[in-house]
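Let's practice the habit of predicting before peeking. Look at the sequence and jot down your guess about where helices and strands might fall. Then scroll down.
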Amino acid sequence: MPFYPDRISYTKEFEVTGEYDNYLLKLGNWKGTIAEVIVNGNSAGVIAYPPYSLDISDHISTGRNTIEVKIVGSNKNLLGPFHSKARPGLAAPGYWRGVTGYPRGDEYNITDYGLMDDFYLFAEKNTSQDLHE
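Done guessing? Here is the structure:
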């Protein structure tokens, strides 16, 4: 859907045994403006900057957990420009001045959006110990 400007969702289920304390969701290779993370139907936060990860420990429960990642695109592919090699994210009126022709559709300058790789859930035990034991 190269001209789709909205968002697309990716959903996975994870079985959690309760032996870990901390859960970190990491995105692999992805392209979009922002990624929203939903855990068990509740928003857990957004990912927009490196290292492209989010601590979702407070949203995970023992048993089956559903994690949804929504990658949000932009209006660049919907509105253009399609004819020039403009810097990504730029679409000013000047890009349409002096245009004498437009490329075939398969030659449009469009941006990929979505997950190019999977997303991953990392779990770790809390290593802090009470010093008074």
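How did you do? Residues 76-79 form the longest helix (4 residues).
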